[in-house]
Amino acid sequence: MNTRDLDYFRKLVEKRNYTEVAEIFKVSQPTITQAIKRLEKEFTTKLVQVDRVHQKTEITRTGYLLFEQSLSIQKSLDLAHKEIEAANSKKIKFGLPPIIGTLYFPQVVGEIAKTNLLDKLNIFESGSHTLFNQLESGDIDIAIIGSLLPINNPNFKAIHLGTRPFSLIVSSDNPLAQSKEAIDFKDLGDQKFIDFAGQFIHGQILHDYFEHTGISPEIIQQTPDISWYKSLIRADIGIGILVRDEINKYDENITCLEIKNPIPENFNISIVYRSDYILKDEEQLLVSILKEIAVDNISSDHY
């Protein structure tokens, strides 16, 4: 089967006009007609019905079935092209969420540099949801991903590195900072919150807490930038949620508070790549470094 025939067929399903499809591909109309006939012969079915009286082109049920399957075929072919192109390159298309980048990556960058991998990393920085989509499409091949639960998806190979807890973070000038006990999240309905804009795990966990405790506090500001997020907290514009040890000794005037009624979700960190993707040597080395450093730094027993 000629995949070009499938290209013509998909466009015909969309346009329902042989002449228009021929113009798009810059071929003759008989070329499109012959392509459809070859597909109908291949699958022993009628894919297209032409009503010449009413000048209408209709797609049969089996035509729609082939159309849907051809989308998957095209997706697989596109992915194959990207993977083969990447295989011929020494570059590693590596996804990294901003928070994990500041929290975890500085611990491993020295080891990566020792193996001459650092100059081979082509880093794509985005939220974990976006990185999943980029992994699936082949725009990146490997990533460190944050998730609220351990990843269990047959389409991806996930190597769990560890878990970090969430904490409520407030300005040290906020009255909540004086609390000596864990904070009951249900009592925060009258507080103003800072939210993460975009598809970030921290934005999701915040709203999960809202739903879990039945409160609807005011979102005073949204930002996709971790530095600006902490600046807003520091200035007591609002309060928020972060992975506990994202707040370090350099984050002055920010206090971490334990949540009295935590929900059963934590910040899980995993190395993720497509389940049918074959790691090249450089990527295998990168994974081994990430796993080795994680034993000491992201172990769930660390807490």
State the fourth-level CATH superfamily of the largest domain: Periplasmic binding protein-like II
- Give the overall silhouette: elongated
Mean pLDDT: 88
Rg of Cα set: 26 Å
What characterizes the major β-sheet?
5 strands, mixed
Task: Please estimate the helix content.
Answer: 40-55%
Instruction: Strand order, main sheet: write it out.
Output: 4-3-5-12-6
Enumerate how many helices there are, as a single number.
Answer: 10
Through-space gap between termini? 57 Å
What class would the helix/strand composition place it in?
alpha/beta
Describe this structure in words.
The structure is a single chain. This protein is of the alpha/beta class. The longest helix is centred in the N-terminal third of the chain and has 27 residues, at 61-87. The strands form four sheets. The protein has a five-stranded mixed sheet, sandwiched between helices. A hairpin with a 4-residue loop joins strand 1 and strand 2. The chain has helices at residues 3-15, 18-25, 29-43, 61-87, 98-103, 105-114, 128-137, 201-213, 226-234, 281-297; strands at residues 48-51, 56-59, 92-96, 121-125, 142-147, 156-164, 166-171, 192-196, 218-223, 240-243, 254-257, 267-274. The protein is 42% helix and 22% strand. It has ten helices and twelve strands. It is elongated.
Short description:
With 303 residues, the protein is of the alpha/beta class. The chain has helices spanning 3-15, 18-25, 29-43, 61-87, 98-103, 105-114, 128-137, 201-213, 226-234, 281-297; strands at residues 48-51, 56-59, 92-96, 121-125, 142-147, 156-164, 166-171, 192-196, 218-223, 240-243, 254-257, 267-274. It is built from 10 helices and 12 strands.
